[in-house]
Amino acid sequence: MISWRAIAAATLLAAAAPVLLAGEIPPDARRSGYAFMGADTRAMQDDDTSNPGMLFVLDGEALWAKKIGSADKACADCHGDAQSSMKGVAARYPAFDKALGRPVTLDQRIILCRANHQQATPLPYESRDLLALSAFIAHQSRGTPITAGDDPQAKPFVEQGRVLYMQRAGQLNLACTNCHDDNFDKRLAGAPITQAQPTGYPLYRLEWQTLGSLERRLRSCMSGVRAQAYDYGSPELVALELYLMSRAHGLPMETPAVRP
Amino acid sequence: MAALINVPSKAKRGDIIEIRTLTSHIMETGFRHTADGKLVPRNIITSFICRYNGAEVFRADLFPAIAANPYLSFFTVAKESGKFEFEWIGDNGYSSTASASITVE
User: Could you tell me the pTM of the whole model?
Assistant: First the structure.
């Protein structure tokens, strides 16, 4: 009897939304975290002279032109004017790297350029300079629709990210999907639960009082359910990032966003 | 340190204008401890001054409870064309400046 009812429910779901997997948000219902914020926080993001993320964009612009490393080269020496050369780039990251045979995040791409092309000391994850460079680069994509994950070579990694996103974890035994697909528009304590759209990274979080990467955000959601957070740059975090970006397909980039 | 300044580029004589400033600073309170119990020394901006063609028009004292990257907005009267100069002073000899010009018709 019970199993019959379950089958009936499953067929109903399938009839209502044939192309979507259970729990997924239909494309026209996708909303950036911006849509969940109060008027004050939106105003802060919208005005480039009151958005603290822009301070990091300015720092990144200065770093872009600075010659460093034993190659004594600046990013600008190879990439020229970022306004044209970096336009739209962040919207397709994480991107598949042929030589490495796996996707790399924008931060990892910058780390690779520092190591391979500038022969400079590596920038640690979440360091101020790395965040500033990635904010400066991603800012050049503001307004560009996200296309990351479109590359067929990236598909297996998108799928890996989706599995992780659906997988329950931690002492609270919750999956990302339980909050961000099943319960967005509700609140967790005082905070609105959003759809986890990665449109604004790196972004300025008022709680952090600084700019932070998408990986930092994901790691804090993982500690939130009392799970062991994956390390920065780990294949799992990269896959999750890639899945989130592919899930946000078509949403415009808004770096540097502001979040509570 | 990077700063973002918003001053209208043009104004009519006698207009009340809004000035907004945002500057990079960690504003370390001096009340926090590291994981191994050491006190993180205070490192904040302690005062901010705005001068309009050399004359001080606004000053503020800042304290540990003010968030990182302080944002200040205030008003003044547009009197003559010229320059606004901004100065942030803080712990450990910290000092940073910025400026913006205005045309008053």
Answer: 0.92
